[in-house]
Amino acid sequence: MSGAGLPGTAGYGESADALVGQYEGITFEEVHRDVLHLMPAPPGAVLDIGAGTGRDAGALAARGYTVVAVEPTPELRAHGRRLHPSPRITWIDDGLPDLSVVMARAGRFDLILLTAVWMHLDAAERATAMERVAGLLRPGGRVSLSLRHGPVPAGRRMFDVPAGETVDLGRRFGLQPLHVGEREDMLGRADVRWSVVVLAPAR
């Protein structure tokens, strides 16, 4: 099943070439600096949902993780394969909220990344997606999400999703917050800010 054509992917295929420089110009360490200490130590299995050009997948593979990189936009997926040709990365055409291809693989993960992805889902899709994500975590696993707040770029589908709502939704599916924070926009946009949330299975 293809993830292409999902509402949240609108605008990304057309701008994929331009996004390469934007995505790859910021390092994994910079993007995730506030929560690196909460990520399980390698080796481990990572699910990178909305992997884009593979910046995070490539960095995690280099650290010794095995990564399943989910990217529904063919153009971004092609860039990811070209830029980060690691044998530790498996690229999959799939997407939220259903993650039907990932679910069919029956794997479980130590870390699930949702970097700049969650705000593309409406309320009903977020509920479905959180249930899927919670079910894909191994005991002791982590889910790391970043949420964009600010004007919606032309041609994109985004919602302003509060961090508190995300925490509450996680609790509905047995996840507890380990971190809730905010940070500035890495691209220097004064009208954009980000929430960062890390969830883990409740003990």
Give an account of the 3D structure.
The protein is an alpha/beta fold. The chain has a single domain (7-201), classed as Vaccinia Virus protein VP39 (Rossmann fold, 3-Layer(aba) Sandwich). It has seven helices and seven strands; from the N terminus they run ααβαβαβαβαβαββ. It has helices at 16-24, 28-31, 55-62, 74-83, 100-105, 123-135, 163-172, and strands spanning 45-49, 66-70, 89-92, 109-114, 137-149, 175-184, 193-201. Strands 3-2-1-4-5-7-6 form a seven-stranded mixed β-sheet, with helices on both faces. Strand 6 (175-184) and strand 7 form a beta hairpin. It is globular, with a radius of gyration of 15 Å.
CATH class: Alpha Beta
User: Roughly what percent helix?
Assistant: 25-40%
Arithmetic mean pLDDT: 90
Q: Helix- and strand-based class?
A: alpha/beta
Helical stretch tally: 7
CATH topology: Rossmann fold
Number of domains: 1
CATH architecture: 3-Layer(aba) Sandwich
**Cα separation of the termini:** 35 Å
Shape: globular
Total number of strands: 7
**Main β-sheet, in a few words?**
7 strands, mixed
Radius of gyration: 15 Å
Strands ordered across the widest β-sheet: 3-2-1-4-5-7-6
Low-pLDDT sequence parts: none
**Full CATH superfamily name:** Vaccinia Virus protein VP39
Strand content range: 25-35%
- The succession of helices and strands, N to C, reads HHEHEHEHEHEHEE
